[in-house]
Design brief:
two-stranded antiparallel ribbon; alpha+beta; 8 strands; six-stranded antiparallel sheet; globular; Rossmann fold; 7 helices; 33% helix
Length: 224
């Protein structure tokens, strides 16, 4: 799945916002309360939470209930435009709360309004299941330690993460230093080999290569 556009209308504290993603790696930077986490939450919601989530469910109590527009709104709505490789572009709209709707619009103009059929199409477009995305790509900073501990105990998950990282960097055109005319793809290759080795766990980076640090911001990769 290649994400091209995400619209919040409304979602959480964002009344209306449209985000367009360029091919490759996209990085969202901003101060606290700028809406970075809201964008990531909206992306997770539209990909994995159907419109008929029960208010008694854990997804509602611990996540969606906090994403209703505030103050006073009773419906959250997100629209996602994506493409699967060279296949047609699809636009998926979903709303939660008092108005619960899901619609998938195909490039041909055909509509799919059955929620189960829409979820099946989305699952086909995603490369992995919800658990992988939630534990790794959507993990919050305070959950990273638990994620790393889980990886140490699950060789299959390590292989999956290695594949995700390798594919993301390659499809992003070689890494994070392109603005300065550099490519860090080679720098990540050792990490890929460690993740994909029989040791089954990430290893500490050598002293001569300090880990990258992001003071603020959230990466919104175009490839899922």
């Amino acid at each position: 799945m290649i994400i091209e556009e995400l619209q919040l209308n409304p979602f959480g504290g964002v009344k209306e916002a449209l985000y367009r993603f360029e091919p490759g790696l996209n990085v969202l930077l901003g101060p606290n309360e700028a809406g970075k986490s809201t964008l990531v939450n909206a992306l997770f919601a539209v990909l994995f939470l159907p419109p008929d989530v029960r208010k008694s469910s854990r997804d509602w109590k611990e996540f969606l209930g906090r994403c209703l527009p505030h103050p006073g709104g009773d419906t959250a709505r997100v629209r996602l435009r994506y493409r699967c490789g060279d296949e047609e572009c699809c636009t998926y709209s979903c709303s939660w709360g008092e108005v619960r709707e899901a619609q998938l619009l195909l490039e041909s103009g055909a509509e799919i309004n059955n929620p189960a059929a829409v979820r099946e199409r989305l699952q086909q477009a995603l490369s992995y299941g919800r658990g992988t995305y939630q534990a790794v790509l959507f993990a919050r900073q305070d959950e990273m330690e638990r994620t790393l501990e889980s990886l140490r105990e699950d060789d299959e998950a390590v292989q999956t993460v290695a594949g995700i990282l390798r594919r993301t960097v390659i499809e992003a055109g070689g890494g994070f230093g392109r603005r300065a005319g550099e490519s860090h793809c080679g720098g990540f290759e050792g990490s890929f080999e460690q993740l994909g080795s029989g040791q089954g766990r990430p290893q500490e980076q050598p002293r001569h290569r300090p880990p990258l640090r992001a003071r603020e911001g959230a990466a919104a990769g175009g490839v899922l």
